[in-house]
Amino acid sequence: MSGGSAANTIVGVANLGARAAYVGKVKDDQIGRLYIHDIRAAGVAFETSAASGRSRHRLLLHPGDAGRRAHHEHLSRRGAGPDAGRYRRRRRSRPPASSISKAICGIPQSAKEAFVKAATIAHGAGRQVALTLSDSFCVDRYRDEFLDLMRKGTVDLVFANEAELHSLYQTARFRQRAEAVARRHQARRRHPQREGLRGGLKGRRRRGAGIPDRQLVDTTGAGDLFAAGFLFGLVRNAGYENAGRLGALAAAEVIQHIGARPQVSLKELAQQNGLPV
After folding, report:
1. What H or E segment, with its residue span, contains residue 242?
2. Long-range contacts of 133-140 (CB under 8 A, 24+ apart)
3. Confidence class of residue 91 from pLDDT cuts 50, 70 and 90?
4. Cα–Cα distance measured from residue 198 to residue 24, given in angstroms and rounded to the nearest whole number
5. How far is Cα 197 from Cα 204, in angstroms, rounded to an integer?
6. pTM of the entire structure?
7. Which helix (H) or strand (E) holds 33?
8. CA angle 34, 45, 84 (to 5 degrees)
């Protein structure tokens, strides 16, 4: 199945009814062409040309408990990877500045140099930039890099779960972690379960109710789809509370089936639940 954190989020945004574009690199093989087909079929503009070579694979292993999963990547079959230099060497492969300047948020899967360049283009067009911390292991490895992006204002909105905030600020108490982010940034905490969500907004902390689900099958993509709903609500001026509810609704849908992308219209689902779209 197609995946990728930022790709899942942008597919969710398009599913809710917004115009969306994605910048990323795939290989020109059967799997790469499948990725291109899937993201375009979801209504997302994708114009980056494919690179030669073979795609990287990732296996998600589920031990039977829907709340747990293990990742395994075939490193011997490396994918396109975070090589920003490809865009400079091949002019027709360069990410179009017009796509970034029109974007809802910038969440590129690339090196820090490319991320900062994309964020600069977005800010120059009056847009906000969102960053997901992705994984506590990733935060452990690049903690200083993440903090540097946040301190310098390169990112405006941060998505994280409790484990990632713990890794970022190295404190055991969630309240301390949330307040550390909220003092300087707009931050959202995402969680796939029913307990709800918490966020810090310019120094203030807020909590919202979760959306009940019928069954928990696979938590893969829950945070990605929460980000999709929240960002959609944010740019549609729905308010932070409604944006959080849209995020919770999108996350609740994706955890009820295998795969990290919605299988129904999130726009219709939101309308049925009385949420603005």
Report:
1. helix 240-254
2. 133/158, 133/159, 133/160, 133/161, 133/164, 133/165, 133/167, 133/168, 134/5, 134/164, 135/164, 136/163, 136/164, 136/166, 136/167, 139/164, 139/167, 139/168, 140/167
3. very low
4. 30
5. 14
6. 0.77
7. helix 30-41
8. 80
